[in-house]
Amino acid sequence: MSLTHRRNTRPVLVGDVVVGGRNKVIIQSMCTTKTQDVEATVAQIHELEEAGCQIVRVAVPDMEAALALKDIKAQISIPLVADIHFDYRLALQAIESGVDKIRINPGNIGRTDRVQKVVEACKAKNIPIRIGVNAGSLEKKFLKKYGYPTAMGMLESAREHVKILEDLDFHDIIISMKASNVELALAAYQLAAEEFDYPLHLGITESGPLFSGSIKSAAGMGALLSLGIGDTMRISLSADPVEEIKVAREVLKSFNLIDNAATLVSCPTCGRIEIDLIPIAAELEKYIANIKAPITVAILGCGVNGPGEAREADIGLAGGDGKGMLFKKGKIIKTVPEEVMLEEFKKEIDAMYKLYQET
Ligand code: SF4
């Protein structure tokens, strides 16, 4: 059984990546480097891409950063997003520099002629705009109306920004409704999903450091994905952004919403354990991290439940009694001594991945 993912969102093209209108969720992250440091930013984008990032965002706080985007864009292959607050001149320069999307709230740009200039520039280059509603920076009038950030206040804010763009006949819109409070984010995203057919970019913003932030993000985004909501996502962690990609991939695997990642099944171990499974599972987790194929790999620690579980995976290993039984597509392919079972298993994983790449 797989989830019914919201299919009716309007497809929006970000560079060569389609966001929305499909049953897959695009993974994004944001650079932590200074954007004007082109070398460091490009290096970080390459690392993120290698980890599975599909769209990358950079902060554009000033003109130096906006100008640097051109050099960055020339050296990367995934779509580049400029994150801009208020200043329409930075937006215009970012567009001129060749970015694939801008994140700016049109209602914060100011005069209508300035908004118009940005929208016309986006139209001319087929660049979408992400409206980023954030509970932490909700406009004063909505805070006054509701007393504090509420889902309805966030929806009303989104409505206003969307209307500005629609009135200018601009529809390449992506919307985010971020909050660090999971319940608030859930409510805001659900309201947005009911109201708009534009793709939604999911985020539990400022969710925290690697461990707690990953769990909080997974809880929030998992709840939304289980409702079929979300076309693109960013895990926001106080950590190396590569970790954000790893977490996002794990979340999407849980919902079968990613087709270029391998999944590891490993047993929790118990009193029946016959091999030193925990370090082996950790090593395998790292080993399969760069596999860009939907292969399920299983490692189980005894001959009681192990073989049954290992059979279910595409490729499995059940250890015990000084040996390891290797399974492929439900059948035992060989039994090897425990000392060499991990190396043998890795060879079989490599062979399966190679076959997948060739077919
Ligand atoms: Fe215990 Fe075996 Fe199950 Fe692992 S597979 S948890 S060792 S019974």
UniProtKB/TrEMBL annotation:
Entry EC number(s): 1.17.7.3
IspG C-terminal domain mapped to chain residues: 264-350
Superkingdom, taxonomy of origin: Bacteria
Co-factor(s): [4Fe-4S] cluster
GO function terms (MF aspect): 4 iron, 4 sulfur cluster binding; 4-hydroxy-3-methylbut-2-en-1-yl diphosphate synthase activity (ferredoxin); 4-hydroxy-3-methylbut-2-enyl-diphosphate synthase activity (flavodoxin); iron ion binding
Catalytic activity, reaction form: (2E)-4-hydroxy-3-methylbut-2-enyl diphosphate + oxidized [flavodoxin] + H2O + 2 H(+) = 2-C-methyl-D-erythritol 2,4-cyclic diphosphate + reduced [flavodoxin]
Residues annotated as domain IspG TIM-barrel: 9-248
Binding site for [4Fe-4S] cluster: C267, C270, C302, E309
Similarity section: Belongs to the IspG family.
Name this protein carries in UniProt: 4-hydroxy-3-methylbut-2-en-1-yl diphosphate synthase (flavodoxin)
Organism this protein belongs to: Floricoccus tropicus
Lineage of the species this protein comes from: Bacteria, Bacillati, Bacillota, Bacilli, Lactobacillales
Chain's gene name: ispG
